[in-house]
Automatic annotation (TrEMBL):
PANTHER family: 5-KETO-D-GLUCONATE 5-REDUCTASE, ALCOHOL DEHYDROGENASE, PUTATIVE (AFU_ORTHOLOGUE AFUA_3G03445)-RELATED. It comes from Cellulomonas soli. One of its GO terms (molecular function) is oxidoreductase activity. Pfam families: adh_short. This is Oxidoreductase.
Length: 292
């Protein structure tokens, strides 16, 4: 582990942004950080100077990433936990908070860990227990981790929570029913945390990573013939920008790596705020719709 760095303030907010009380530590807890997108995010944050806590189930994978983080000159903390086990999550978060105490605590939470069904099929043909495994991992996990991290952020007056989401969270799919349900529920969690704690300095974001080449996507027949992939570095850059406060105005909204960039999002911020776009909501037939 390299020598801890003191917390630094995030860059000031741009036009239309609501500032988060400063300083928000440049520290991050990344779940599912041992492989795939989580590993890429952790390394990207380390390159940007973040101290990174790597949380997941497999110690060997986390230790390997921690060694890479250390090689980049950044602080690495490892905590193992089954993310659907409430006691294990509380213990892991407590260990990370203690390790980051001299840096100001956890400033950014990245809920990255997630799974998908074993079979690419429709609802009736799928295994309900496997679908529930997906829902539990992808919803209960982020709920437990966020529930454990938020009190510290609130006590310090600010923090940022980023949930790795998917287009499946707002777009109906012909397969992977459990995955779609889980990402829709995760999007609602993002908006709920924004609504409840925005005025207390918490910012949230749903980030769809696009289609990154990982072990998970390699096992999905829908991607067998894919030749164009989203770069994990593009995902990590959006995470970094959110962690640094550049996307605070997008709190409670949805962005997609591979389609959105930091510059493109900043360019349309005023339009997005004026139309209240990129939120999970019910479409209505007009202002006189009684369901509004």
């Amino acid at each position: 582990m390299s020598a801890p760095q003191p917390p630094s303030s995030a860059p000031g907010p741009g036009p239309g942004q609501i500032p988060v009380p400063q300083p928000v530590p440049r520290t991050a807890l990344v779940t599912g950080a041992g492989r795939g997108i989580g590993r890429g995010i952790a390394l990207g944050l380390a390159r940007a100077g973040y101290a990174v806590a790597l949380v997941g189930r497999t110690r060997a994978h986390l230790d390997a990433v921690a060694a890479q983080v250390a090689e980049l000159g950044a602080t690495a903390v490892v905590a193992t936990a089954d993310l659907v086990d409430a006691a294990a999550v509380r213990s892991a978060v407590a260990r990370v908070e203690a390790a980051f105490a001299g840096l100001g605590g956890i400033g950014l939470l990245v809920n990255n860990a997630g799974v998908i069904e074993r079979a690419e099929t429709d609802f009736v043909a799928d295994d309900v227990e496997d679908m529930w495994r997906v829902v539990e991992t992808n919803v209960r996990g982020p709920m437990l981790v966020t529930h454990a991290v938020l009190p510290g952020m609130l006590a310090r007056g600010g923090g940022r929570v980023l949930d790795l989401n998917s287009g499946a969270g707002h777009r109906a799919m012909g397969t992977y029913t459990g995955y779609g349900i889980s990402k829709g529920a995760l999007a609602r969690l993002t908006t709920a945390i924004d609504a409840q704690y925005r005025d207390r300095g918490i910012r949230t974001l749903d980030l769809a990573p696009g289609v990154v080449a990982t072990d998970m996507t390699a096992g999905m027949p829908v991607h067998d013939d894919r030749t164009a992939w989203t770069s994990v570095e593009d995902v990590a850059e959006l995470v970094r920008a959110f962690g640094d406060g550049e996307l605070d105005a997008w709190s409670g909204r949805f962005v997609r790596a591979g389609a959105d960039t930091v510059d493109s999002l900043l360019a349309v911020t005023d339009e997005v705020l004026a139309t209240d776009a990129r939120r999970l909501r019910l479409s209505t037939f007009g202002a006189h719709d009684p369901a509004v």
